[in-house]
């Protein structure tokens, strides 16, 4: 299953970009990162179908790493071929986008800059795939 982060704004050369790259290289599943302008631009069509869309949103569900891994594992096992993670600009996502999403995910009640959210999401994707593979990196308990 392709894990695809689609984010508004440019990460460019930055410490957050380096961290995103570091975790992206560790993810053993297919991975893609796409950027959109802060305003305008169209979300690219899915590379594969069936697809699930996850919006990173303050109204989303708080999940443990194990719950997140289980969700990805369930979608993979159901035949989902692409999971898209959409990160909005400063104003987040509109009501229509939230209503159409398959899942709303929250990284806590605090507001995070989109650059940090990308690197945090990449780490959680790596952690989730490590959990599903039984890798010792993740220690639950």
TrEMBL record:
<protein>
    <recommendedName>
        <fullName>Ribosomal RNA large subunit methyltransferase H</fullName>
        <ecNumber>2.1.1.177</ecNumber>
    </recommendedName>
</protein>
<keyword id="KW-0808">Transferase</keyword>
<keyword id="KW-0963">Cytoplasm</keyword>
<dbReference type="InterPro" id="IPR029026">
    <property type="entry name" value="tRNA_m1G_MTases_N"/>
</dbReference>
<keyword id="KW-0949">S-adenosyl-L-methionine</keyword>
<feature type="binding site">
    <location>
        <position position="88"/>
    </location>
    <ligand>
        <name>S-adenosyl-L-methionine</name>
    </ligand>
</feature>
<feature type="binding site">
    <location>
        <begin position="107"/>
        <end position="112"/>
    </location>
    <ligand>
        <name>S-adenosyl-L-methionine</name>
    </ligand>
</feature>
<dbReference type="InterPro" id="IPR029028">
    <property type="entry name" value="Alpha/beta_knot_MTases"/>
</dbReference>
<dbReference type="InterPro" id="IPR003742">
    <property type="entry name" value="RlmH-like"/>
</dbReference>
<comment type="similarity">
    <text>Belongs to the RNA methyltransferase RlmH family.</text>
</comment>
<dbReference type="Pfam" id="PF02590">
    <property type="entry name" value="SPOUT_MTase"/>
</dbReference>
<comment type="subunit">
    <text>Homodimer.</text>
</comment>
<feature type="binding site">
    <location>
        <position position="56"/>
    </location>
    <ligand>
        <name>S-adenosyl-L-methionine</name>
    </ligand>
</feature>
<comment type="function">
    <text>Specifically methylates the pseudouridine at position 1915 (m3Psi1915) in 23S rRNA.</text>
</comment>
<keyword id="KW-0698">rRNA processing</keyword>
<dbReference type="GO" id="GO:0005737">
    <property type="term" value="C:cytoplasm"/>
</dbReference>
<keyword id="KW-0489">Methyltransferase</keyword>
<dbReference type="GO" id="GO:0070038">
    <property type="term" value="F:rRNA (pseudouridine-N3-)-methyltransferase activity"/>
</dbReference>
């Amino acid at each position: 299953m392709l894990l695809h982060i689609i984010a508004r704004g440019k990460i460019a050369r930055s410490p957050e970009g380096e961290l995103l790259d570091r975790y992206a290289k560790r993810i053993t599943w297919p991975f893609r990162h796409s950027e959109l302008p802060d305003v305008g631009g169209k979300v690219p069509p899915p590379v594969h179908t069936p697809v699930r869309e996850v919006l990173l949103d303050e109204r989303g569900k708080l999940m443990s790493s194990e719950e997140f891994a289980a969700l990805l594992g369930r979608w993979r096992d159901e035949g989902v071929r692409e999971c898209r993670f959409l990160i909005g600009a400063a104003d987040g996502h509109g009501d229509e986008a939230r209503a159409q999403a398959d899942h709303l995910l929250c990284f806590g009640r605090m507001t995070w800059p989109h650059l940090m959210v990308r690197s945090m999401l990449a780490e959680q994707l790596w952690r989730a795939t490590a959990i599903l593979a039984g890798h010792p990196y993740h220690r639950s308990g």
